[in-house]
Amino acid sequence: MSEKTSISADVPDRPEKRRKKAAVSAKTLLEDSYTGIGASRGIAIGTSYAFEKEQFEHENKSLEEKEIDDEIERFLGALHRSEKELKKIERVTTRKLGKSYANLFEAQIMLLHDPVLTETITARIRKEKKAASIIIDEEFGHYLEKFINSDDQFFQERACDFRDIKERIIRNLHIRKLHSWIPEGTVVISEHLSPADVILLSRSNVKGFVTDTGGKTSHISLICKSLNIPMIVGLGNLSQQVKTGSQIIIDGSTGNVIINPAEKTLLRYLKKRDEELQYEADAFRTAEQPAYTRCGVRISFYSNIDFKEELEGIQASGSEGVGLFRTENLFIDGTKVPSEAEQYNYYREMAETLKPMPLVVRLFDIGGDKLLYSPVREPNPNLGWRGIRILIDVPEILESQLRAVLRANTSGNIHILLPMISSLEEIVFIKNSLEKLCGEIISETGTACEKPFIGAMIEVPAAVEMIEEITSAVDFISIGTNDLTQYTLAVDRNNVIVQDLFDKFHPAIIRQLYRVISTAQKNRCMVSICGDMGSDSLALPFLLGCGLRKFSVVSGDIAKLKKTVSGFTLEETEALAAECLRLDSAAKIKGCLENFQAAR
């Protein structure tokens, strides 16, 4: 639903989809605007291209006995063609973004070689005498249902990978060519896109992407950030309304999409785009210099990463180390636990590359609805068996990871971060495990064991309530604002229906942040932020005013944040924070922050 503004109408509608129609002559197309979720910053102005994937009707017939072997050969041939396509995409990705993102496609290729999957589909074709496309759709459907309905971001992203593989195999059953070339310089609008789609379409100098589904931390969003391509997600059914050839503006910072912009709107966005490009150019020229506020206080910026290959460029971005390494990406196919040796080699290489800069290793943040160790489907996995709970209940996973970290920490720059902490007992358990394992390693090797700093993620309201005890028990804390907002407001951050209620500037969130940061400072516990809020330049002065001095963000955001920091004094940010803490609505808080920025 939307708001329509024209000569004769003013009809209110849903707040997250605001649509305005400019008053113009009957011969002129009306300006329409929509608001989604900004997933990759930047302004794109151009012509829309409606990207639709080819749909295939399943051959719903019973196979004759003589057709079964041919159908199995068709299936195996489709696997082979799919592998060739993915290897091509992997090469393009390596060239454009490096090895880290190419690993996404390595994992898909590994799935194509999964003997269990191949044998299951082959056996079902032979036994049930059904077409391969039907069996493939059903087999992948079992996984997709679990992944799509997951409350865990990691597995929701894997749903996109599984859907892509399923569609790829079925298309190759029909021996249809991969749709990857589109007109140069368009803004792509689609119901959903896979990482492979984004990589291949980017070769056509795409100006921006808009999708009906998706989240800010999905693989496609991260890829667009790395490629500096604006992206907006969560537009509902916009792809059904906008056809190829419409004039379009997208603003990845605000989530605004404007179709058929009026001349004054176009001029305003052209000016804004030029100003943003100039600002970013100025920021990157000084990215590697330390960040200071206008009154001379040092502010530190670290990187959130998923793969070791990302280390190559973090220093050039101005990063001072890794503030969050998401180790769950070591689960190559989403299910197989990496061995101690695999983890040791991975962590050791990263620590050696970074030293003396820190490497914060978050222990496996895996959820209860993943296909690991969970024989039954939980009614609400987001409130179930996940994070630290799994690590405590399955000691072989925990101890293998802790041993790998302890052995790899020869330079003393690895720190451990505990996910989903809600009680002091969980921290004590990990500390005791570390003591025990450290003793074992010393006995085995005869050499000293460098104990890492221990930190806790603050991402559930229980941790906020226990913040006095937690900050007295650990060396550092890291605030995960995404989950903290989700759990505090009881709003699924990936649910489009309630997306407008997911607001990091809600007074409850603002007050929690101040409480956590000020308590950590009082107890001399290091504190940083690793959620999306840390990358938001609007939130930055408020966080500084609360006392935050360390930020862990996407590497590409660091240069701009450093430049933003230089425009404030702590005295004025503290006054701003005090004012925001007195306000009683997210709208008032955002208005206060916007006025503060506008004045500077």
UniProtKB/TrEMBL annotation:
GO function term, MF aspect, one: phosphoenolpyruvate-protein phosphotransferase activity
GO cellular component, one term: cytoplasm
Gene Ontology terms: biological process: phosphoenolpyruvate-dependent sugar phosphotransferase system
Binding site for Mg(2+): 459, 483
Keyword annotations from UniProtKB, A to Z: Coiled coil, Cytoplasm, Kinase, Magnesium, Metal-binding, Phosphotransferase system, Pyruvate, Sugar transport, Transferase, Transport
A Pfam family: PEP-utilisers_N
Catalytic reaction annotation: L-histidyl-[protein] + phosphoenolpyruvate = N(pros)-phospho-L-histidyl-[protein] + pyruvate
Record localization: Cytoplasm
Gene3D superfamilies: Phosphoenolpyruvate-binding domains, Phosphohistidine domain, PtsI, HPr-binding domain
Stretches of the chain forming a coiled coil according to its record: 53-92
Occurrences of domain Phosphotransferase system enzyme I N-terminal (ranges): 35-158
Domain PEP-utilising enzyme mobile: from-to ranges: 182-255
PANTHER family (alphabetical): PHOSPHOENOLPYRUVATE-PROTEIN PHOSPHOTRANSFERASE (PTHR46244)
Enzyme Commission no: 2.7.3.9
Function: General (non sugar-specific) component of the phosphoenolpyruvate-dependent sugar phosphotransferase system (sugar PTS). This major carbohydrate active-transport system catalyzes the phosphorylation of incoming sugar substrates concomitantly with their translocation across the cell membrane. Enzyme I transfers the phosphoryl group from phosphoenolpyruvate (PEP) to the phosphoryl carrier protein (HPr).
Binding site residues for phosphoenolpyruvate: 326, 362, 482-483, 493
Cofactor(s) recorded in Swiss-Prot or TrEMBL: Mg(2+)
InterPro entries per UniProt: PEP-util_enz_mobile_dom, PEP-utilizing_PTS_enzyme, PEP_util_C, PEP_util_CS, Phosphohistidine_dom_sf, PTS_EI, PTS_EI-like, PTS_EIN
UniProt-annotated catalytic positions: 219, 530
Name of the molecule in the record: Phosphoenolpyruvate-protein phosphotransferase
Residue segments, region Disordered: 1-22
Family assignment from sequence similarity: Belongs to the PEP-utilizing enzyme family.
Domain of life: Bacteria
